[in-house]
Structures
1.
Amino acid sequence: MDTPSTLHITNDPTQKNLDDDGREKRTGTWITASAHIITAVIGSGVLSLAWAIAQLGWIAGPAVLMAFSLITYFTSTLLADAYRAPDPVYGKRNYTYMDVVRASLGGKKVQLCGIAQYVNLVGVTIGYTITASISIVAVKRSNCFHDNGHDAHCKPSNYPYMIVFALIQMVLSQIPNFHKLSWLSIVAAVMSFAYSLIGLGLSIAEVAGGVHTKTTLTGTEVGINLSGSEKVWHTFQAIGDIAFAYAYSTVLIEIQDTLKSYPPENKMMKRASLIGVSTTTLFYMLCGCIGYAAFGNDAPGNFLTGFGFYEPFWLIDIANVCIAIHLIGAYQVFCQPIFGFVEMKCAQRWPESKFITSERAVNVPCCGAYPVNMFRLVWRTAYVTITALIAMIFPFFNSFLGLIGAGSFYPLTVYFPIEMYIARVKIPKFSFTWVWLKILSYTCLIISLVAAVGSVQGLLTDLKKYQPFKTE
């Protein structure tokens, strides 16, 4: 008697668009997941790696890069297995990082996870607003110098471009969820490759040109221009830059939730993580090491600016435009979990509200019918507006990102994946595996604290010279 009913449900066209838990059917593959990861990881942080290697030197710099690559990949595989619980293949799906922690650990750790994740995501979106405007201003400056000479007064304001960036994000933020974001991540990933390759090519040309630069095994040297304490602070900041350049765990579960249910999501996510982290490490190693070889111990914070605003101005313009386009996509990758969390909570709190729950189809030229939700329209527009205003009021906010990253890297990338693995597999206390996992966890905690100290020192330095709404 049950068979006809089952067959009826299977043949129902509405059921074909639903997943095993009644939600919208997922269509993501390891390719789209890899694109999301590359978009999230190869951010503008790649541009600071030449500076980071310069602080650490030829021995410690590449070693730290490789160490964090291995740590990030290892903990991401642990986190991928926690997506379904209690079984990593047949268990119940958990849609967010908080859901995963709730299923595996529970208690106050869920709130700690939420605070670490969402504070980091908000900070990153504000930082990306600043960084994208800086890249467009760099294009304006290089064109100004090219047209008017190298002595021209070329100091355009960042603020109009922050507003333009925010307007673009207001439109893109209406993309309903991560499942509809794959095309934007692929475009952003291509852009990240483009500006990394341009910077790499210019660095190789600089080295091949025979320009003499001083590099050392231990990096920048204490002397007239660098005190011993500044060397320590810079070393701390460099370790922090490298550690946080790999941190994509804040969005890993949300990325995994876009994958099709077969093949198993954890296997596909591990493949995507391997591709994403390997690709990232290759680019980081090339850009960091060759950038250091090109500029030596005087490597700038952004190695694209080390080539000046002059010639080849058109190539540096292309690189900076690619950075801006990449950050447009990366902003969406990092803000979608915030949007999803707030909208889910509001729908649970006010399930009868038409303003929150109802959608209507609107015909968009060249795109067909597009679902519009009034709450999503108002709330997401308000979020983008607020982040843009904060970026405009505190344009040095990038200094906060190191501090925010220090507070989120350890719990989200290391602590929770390890603790959930220990709880899920039921590893005996003081066994060999338990001990070395704990050693790894505490080592990363110390690194996060060290990076936080360096970030606070950098923040205090920025505050001393801060002048609101002043064009740099």
2.
Amino acid sequence: MNVPQDLGYTKEHEWLRVADGVATVGITAFATDSLGDIVYLQLPSVGDTVTAGEVCGEIESTKSVSELYAPAGGEIVEVNDAAVDSPEIVNTDPYGDGWLFRVRTAEVPELLDAAAYVALTDGEV
């Protein structure tokens, strides 16, 4: 399983990359494999305020509908319109072009590193 070392991870299978107070958020390859083919994304809008740990959207796949949690709180500053228009990109490139949204955050919660995330998912496989 592909788990980049430079990201932080949540137990809900989101990843974060933080730079200059802005966190880019996506879902992990483990999540995309579990969900199957993603067909629809409901993401927060630019200007929305999200709270860490709270539901901020939905991901619909051919298997199910899953809630999307905000891994960090703050103001949404960008949404990946390409992923909304072509949600399959989340399956094919979850850590690159398949990112979901960016949030300006003053505080990043404690996250799992890659090794801890692998240990978590090994128990779920």
3.
Amino acid sequence: MPAFDLPLPELERHRPEPDEPDDFDAFWRATLKEAGQPAPLVSVHPVDNGLRLTNTWDVTFRGFAGDPVRAWFSLPAGAREPLPVVVEYVGYGRGRGLPHERLTWVNAGYAHLLMDNRGQGDQYGNGGATPDPHATAPGGPGPAVRGLRSPHDYHYRRLITDAVRAVTAARALPGVDSARTVAVGNSQGGGLALAVAGLLPDLAAVLVTAPLLCGIRRALDLTDTGPYGEIATYLSVHRGIEETAYRTLSYVEGVSFARRAQAPAHFGTGLRDTVCPPSGAYAAFNRYGELSGGADPRREMYAYPFNGHEGGEGEQVARQLHWLASTLTG
């Protein structure tokens, strides 16, 4: 696929006006207050992961509406002191999979919480374990369109709330230095990490690659691939509700969350990404932290001109590892 979005010099200046409802902050304050039980953890059980150098626990915590959400929590075997904790969010259609699959962060010496996606996990990978009991509002079969007609019913209201609650749960686990909490994600997970950064002012860092839910209106004009294609297909059948859908989507717009974020941030994007167009990543990056009370959070962006949604793959992860280490110790 050739480059299809804006040229890089224009991307580096891309600062579209925010597509943001007047009650954006009130909406999320009310949503998180409703979900804000003081004791997030439901259960923590050790599991046999078949590994000698990593210990893993099966965690259940209370997410949106107090619903049980599953996660894997891992620590380096023999860790003797509280460690910074990386809370990781996975991609669209994926679940938490198996406990031995994602070892980068724990091998780098961090505590690691991998959150399951409610109502997802059936499209690729090794499955999930968290149902979504609220997925009955009008909408299509895919998560991106469940409850699309109302911001209160929309799937991403629930999933973003789960993502915030995952941080609260991670901070309550043993072996964690709660003052050094990091949100990490790619694609849908990147969108969730950005949302968490905008809703929690005290993260130590956020790492985002190819984020979904950024520049949503433009993405719907550019691509029919992936989750945006599901939304376009739904609107092609349910003609005339576009403004209703756009209003719902404005409450989960990643650029709005990015504007409110305060943590140091590391971004990455492929310039040939037709799943999450790079203009969305740049819109979030260029407006990152602008409502953070006068602070100018440290942030970096890496663009991969000949890569699509896979981005920089291992090279991007290497950049993240070095950047995070210097950020947490600097």
4.
Amino acid sequence: MSSEIAVSIKDLSYTHAPPGGRPLASATPALRDLNCTIAKGSILLLVGGNGAGKSTLLYLLAGKRMLQQGDVRVFGKDVFKDYPDNLVYLGTEWAMNAGVKRDIVVSDFLNSVGGHRHQERRNHLLDILDVDLDWHMHAISDGERRRVQLVMGLMGKWDLLLLDEVTVDLDVLVRHELLLFLKEETVKRGATIVYATHIFDGLNDFPTHISHMRDGSFVLNPSPWPLDLSYFSPNGTQTPTLHSIALKWLSDDRRLRIKEEKEGKRKQSRGARDALGTPIPRDGKTFFHNYDYSH
């Protein structure tokens, strides 16, 4: 791994525009005061529950939103004003787009986006992702369409790859082969990857760094993986798996949220509500009493 910095984030905060033309200050920030650097050649895994801010962070790193507060640099460039041509972002929305579900043959589709310029890498990815060039885009499954997206996005020589849940549709074999390819890209070419996922099986040997996000902040800033054993317990002898760590972190996040709701530090916005929209207490006896029409 190089000492060169691929990504630099300083004092980054971001708030999505609230509906109805309400002022920005009335909305809850999606990201709060993020600070970190990501070294060239590293693979950073973002761990956090739904709504933790992972996708928003990746969108900003990809230059898809104008910064409101703070500074983001990719290889020293402002990604919004001076988008680097060696950056690739792959998110879940592409395969759902009606435009890519038309009756077009995969070979023609890939050629239309420059596949002929990257023949060697394109052919390597076609084998890894088990893609049939004779497929018709409108007649294949979501998982197969996702494979085509990955061939399209990865066939050029990227230096920073931002992945947002794009392996969710892949079968276990194709996902395994893809991860091996991506790891090889970071080792041989010094490419950098930031990856947000909720599937942790088979990932123990993939990342070089992991982080924990909650409510738009880093609970754990990007840290070398495996984590130091002292992080878990003074007498620890074996690093837990990524799956067990993610499960613990997300369970802790939910317990903290419920505790803050009970203490009035935040509004209870999840779970069951009555006809007036008032949250129903979470204990089972009270909950079922509200729906017992025999009394």
